[in-house]
Design a protein that fits this description.
Helix content is about 30%, strand content about 25%. The protein is an alpha+beta fold and about 140 residues long. It has one domain: 60s Ribosomal Protein L30, Chain: A, CATH 3.30.1330. The protein has a 4-stranded mixed β-sheet, with helices on one face. The longest helix is centred in the first third of the chain and has 18 residues.
Length: about 140
């Protein structure tokens, strides 16, 4: 099991997580799409920082090349469970779209990914996501 926390987002260390962005190929260069790409890199970096040095180096190399850090074998099951904490007084995305954006950032192939999410208001006012991954 791998456990880590995504603190805030790529723009604000205490902000809310970014929901999955659905776009067409022609929309990849819009400011919103570029922000989503930065969010996915941020998620990958948050994941990589808790790994042992050898695995961290490999994950960071993959991220730098534009490749997602977790590659499941064909048919290999995995599970990702999230606890989402919303920053108070700020609009936020739907929890299922947060799940989708984190899966999109981490997994090369997530078609056998199961999991859950629960959302809470952050008592400390700091947006974050506590992530548990089982492979």
């Amino acid at each position: 099991m791998i456990a880590f926390t995504i603190s805030g987002n790529h723009k604000n260390a205490h902000g809310n997580p970014v929901p999955k962005l659905k776009m067409t190929a022609g929309q990849r260069w819009t400011p919103k799409a570029q922000g989503y790409a930065k969010w996915k890199i941020y998620v990958g970096m948050q994941y990589a920082r808790i790994l042992p040095l050898k695995d961290r180096t490999e994950s960071l190399t993959r991220i730098a090349k534009g490749v997602k850090p977790i590659a499941l074998k064909t048919g290999q099951p995995a599970r990702m469970d999230l606890k989402i904490f919303w920053k108070r007084g700020v609009n936020h995305g739907d929890p299922e779209n947060i799940f989708g954006s984190i899966a999109d950032a981490l997994f090369v192939n997530d078609n056998n990914l199961n999991g859950s999410f629960e959302a809470h208001r952050a008592e400390d006012g700091k947006g974050r996501v506590e992530v548990n991954i089982t492979i």
